[in-house]
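Q: Joint fold for the lines below.
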Amino acid sequence: MINVKELTKRYARTTAVDHISFEVAKGQIVGFLGPNGAGKTTTMRMLTCFLPPSSGTATVAGFDVLEQPMEVKKRIGYLPETPPLYPEMETAEYLKFVGQLKGLSGAELQKRIDYVCERCAIADVRNKLLGKLSKGYRQRVGLAQAIIHNPDVLILDEPTAGLDPKQINETRDLIRSLAGSHTIILSTHILPEVEQTCEQVVIINKGKLVATDSVRNLQARARGAESILLEVGGRNGNLETSTVQQKLERVSGVSRVVCKHKVDSRAFFEVESQKGRLVRGDLARAVVESGWDLNELRPAAMSLEEVFLQLTGKDAPAEGAAAKGAQQQ
Amino acid sequence: MRNALIICQKELRSYFSSPVAYILLTMFGLIFGFFFWNSLAYFVVEGMEMQMRGSSFPMNLNEQIIRPLLQNVSVIGLFFIPMISMRLFAEEKRTGTIELLVTSPVRDLEIVLGKWLAAMALYSCLLLFTAVNFAFLFRYGNPDWKPLAVGYLGLLLQAGALLAIGTFISTLTKNQIIAGAVTFGVCLLLWVLEWVSGYDSSTWARVLAYMSVVTHFESFDRGVIDSKDTIFYATVIFLGLFFTARSMESLRWRS
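A: Joint structure:
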């Protein structure tokens, strides 16, 4: 549905987006991830025909953003970082205006307005001035505006920024429910958001593509070996962490043991195993046989956050490999 | 064209759902009302004096009231036009709503045209105030309506030219005050350029004077539709809107 090839945006002194390539299949939700200033907004603006690319191509639903911007614009719903609302307009009036701009009219327009009002839960503010709405409502009106013409592609720039936790969840649910019938790209710098909402991630940093993959693969790829969290307790009220650490290190298959922290006589360890070795049973036995309590033992799924830091961090060995992997796809 | 009308409608709604339109209308109504009352009072006093002297020289409403008043409106307009045009693009750029317009399937020229039409419509509303005053002349006197109609046409053309320039300036900044101030400066300059013809008749002076929007209004206030002046205004309108559309395009390359 969306096809980006070697997309580049150069300004006078900086290169905001540097040869980015990725693809998005129909009906997918893709998370566009990167720290602030990574070039997310610039890329999205190029996809929506707001900014022309310096070089490279981008096609949306088969139409090139430079050659046939009108066709692209018809098929895209766009929610910029700040919802583009006119404070002196009422919600319904505003949606009508946007609908007309997108080419709707008459009964169809009315039907769509009713539909998006219900879908985005803004029916109760239909006759309120946009300038008087709370942040959550403004965001949802922004979203309603983006889907009013039932576009094939939805581009959402940080749709949950500035919302409270309840609103964030509602907005995520709404976005998830829109997938399938719409192809969605959403940008964010909040990682759990991607884990919760998206099927695929595109990570960019300083204008360069760092990785593009499914959320699950990405977690797995960065993990490499299994990592296990252990909580060990001393029976008689004291516990020497260094002794426990030595004991754990001696278990075969263990590559690294880190003591995370210690509370009274309980200590928390993170144990990394070598690839392909199952060490959980041995670890448990080692702890119990030494006379300590094994309070907890669980595999630590690496969060996307760690993956992200690993990929965008300066000393990231995975960066080159991941980017190469991404380009091969 | 449909899109231009949608945008025009929206702009008009913005003018009239904020205090802008009402303040402009009130101020213009007050100022013009004073001018009208002033020249009417003068006309009446003069008329009485003439009767006392027994002069048979006919008094003429068109020449003595309508024509000077139209000239006044043309100058007052210079002060009001920046206030009409300054928000057109500057406001959209500041609040980010320009992103909505530009990413909608609408041509740049349609956006520009819609906004300019809305500004013209508001200016026409100002002119309606003058029409209310002039209506009294028709009720109690017997002026000729044709020169007045031509005068209105001239005012609309002049305002169209200045509004096109103002719209262009509004695309250059995010700040309404800057847009307003620069437009006001340009309007003022285009008015006083004419003064050079008072003491200088070299080619340069003639060119400068020709560029003054006010010189081109003189034929209209006499009740004459001069094709030369009509074409001048039409050219400025066209160029102004053309540059506005270009400026919108460059907005994307630069931003």
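Q: Anything notable?
A: Chain A is about 35% helix and 30% strand. Residues 106-119 of chain A form the longest helix (14 residues).
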